[in-house]
Amino acid sequence: MAPAFTAPSGHYNELGSSTGALHPHWQPFFASSEIATPGLLDERWRGAERMIRENGVTYNVYADPRGLDRPWPLDPIPMIVPATEWQALEKGLVQRARLLDAILTDVYGAQILLREGVMPPGLVFGNPNYLRPCHGITPAGGRHLRLYAADLARLPDGSWRVLSDRTQAPSGSGYALENRMVVARSLPEAFRAAPVARLSGYFRALREGFAEAAAAAARASRGTEDEPRIVLLTPGPYNEVYFEHAYLARYLGYPLVAGEDLTVRNDRVYLKTLGGLQPVDGILRRLDDDYADPLWLNPRSSLGVAGLVAAARRGYVAIANALGSGLVESPALMPYLPALCRRLLGEDLTLHSAETRWCGAPGGTIGPDSALADRVVRPAFAGSGREPVFAAALTGGEYRRLAKEIAEAPAAWVVQEKLKLSCVPVWGGGRLTPRPMVLRAFLAAKDDGYAVLPGGLTRVSGETADSVVSLQQGGRSKDTWVLTADRSTHSSLWQRHDHAVELRRHGADLPSRIADNLFWLGRYGERSEAATRLARAVLARVVESGPGVPGMTAIAPLLGTIEPLDDGDATERSDDPVARVAAALKPPFRSLHRVATGVRDRLSTDTWRILHSMARAGISPAGTASTALAELDELLSRMAAFNGMAMENMTRGAGWRFLELGRRLERAVQITGMIRILGGVVGDGEAAALEALLEVCDSGMTYRSRYFTTLEPAAVLDLVLADDSNPRALAFQLAALDDHIRHLPRERPGAIPSTEARLAAQLLTVIRRADLARLAWTPEPAKRPGTALPGRPHLERFMTALEDDIFSLSDAVSAAYFKHATAAPVVGRQGPATGGRGTAKGATG
User: Residue 223 — left, alpha, or beta (φ > 0 → left; ψ -120 to 50 → alpha)?
Assistant: First the structure.
């Protein structure tokens, strides 16, 4: 492929010179066969995009009409930086990180800079990100800034400038790692053609450096030299970069926790688990400073941990980054960095910021006649919620309003140079197109300074002339290749120690929130499967529809089983069975994906891929019944794969038991409801209903092998209700529930059975003593043609009582193990596949 590519006038061309000659560091890449053949590049990249979708690599875009979870936008052409240029950038980035850390140490400590006048007091005390409760805290390990990221832009002369500093909870390194995985796998020849620096060494340095800080906290808190316990604190699945949180937690080996999983007792942080409180020595936080502690900081926050500031003050927990680090994200600080660098480090600043003027400084305001054509007006302090304003795009009235707003509160604004961003090639439509780009670089503290990620997250704008580079506004990302003089070796995160480790046959203690989500993952998975089986039974009969076709009389009861019987929108329901079935499948699968996202870090890559594909599956409401049947068959195959992964690959710990407990409990609910509805049909539709019951319970083959083609109600009920050797029978589920509950951890083991254990044992006894002949009995009037069909009254009462007891068992398990969750709301009785009383997910769903 000939790289025909021209940057707009005045912009630096990352690819080559103005004459069209490639820069030397790009030549091996474009010489590879994968890039030289456009058709091959398109084919490889279609596979990469499929990999991104299947792996569920997402970026949450709020208020996006296409949905919250947007697939991660990745471009196949990397951003390539030569080794010599990167070495110079590394030095400047490390110096900048040291400087910002020193500023934080002074401002939250002696405040010499303020007393000497090197730093205006308004930059500190007027900054909402200065956290007064954190003054005087010396972080465990001695550093405020353990993680740092800088957004870099290249000027037309080829030099680099810093657009913004990221110091609270810098995001993007996980996406940079995922970009590398996808691009290296999709374009292996091009990747091998260039000696690209590996990324794993950075993450190893991050983990080792933070482990030292956490070990210091463990010594202060517990006086122990044991390996410290470190967690990654996330705001939750609705955060825009939650994928990265789960991805990094799994890659680094840290438990992913929410604020509700942690508690502070006597100024020490603990993880709440089923086995009790476990000490936490380090927190890699991914939520903003103000939300970290509702007791000392923002009382409206429900994401943090009350008392975390006090634990940090005692040095009992290491936090990356230290609370209050957002102070130095302010662009108003940029004009003062050269002087601060000379004062604190005794050095000249080598990596400069974009030209910035703080309006709060003397003479810093702008008047209504000022020329701002090449300027950007930005909020001076992070977290204001205001977007940058490009003055050249304003009308006269808009400009005057902005000038007035700045005049009324000058300290809240900065005026920054509008840079002409360098352009990189973006692939699309069979050709290369120039796009402005910004490179985010990442640093992590280590014992002798900072480690720089040899790469980064390159982002490009959505339009050629657009100066706004934002993934929220249609931009893309790129893998960033830093070339090395020699091919770098892989640095594994697995470590070997000289001393022998203590052998273990159990995993880490399970937080109750994770147990809750695994329990509901099992329930929603089984609920989705039941709805799919019922849908398939309905549509199979629709396909066979015609005068006198057996089974047609079962369609109405089947639809009544899959759809809520008290649905308020029933009058607006479509008459098309395909549309009705499609609508009925959406709620359980939507809930399945939501709760699976909450335990993503606990699932293997293969298991997550299966679950994610199930959530994206479904049937078209406008399709034919035959097409929908094929889609349902494929969906059931994926469900079988998920069940197989759970049964064959999950360690038999507490997490697996809660998953299985949820599955068995939900299957018991579904079977009970189907028997109550389908087993209660008598008269002309009895045979069709019993056949449908065997079908949705996947027990038809077993029944035929025992009874051939004779459909007897008592025999059908025995197989799906009381036969504990049938995995689809109610008795089998109740026996499994009894076994799982007896093996669940208890805070206070004792001789007295727990409430849930007693309920499970009682249910199993009831089902084993059931009189099947009595349950199958039908009153005499139903046997005379033309008379009313009262059904099977004993079966109706028996199954209704069982449903109530199963729901009580579910409530008892929730009360005993999921104490953080709110009580499940009580709703009217619904069809089995959509749940019923006591089946709504708690607060963490």
Answer: left
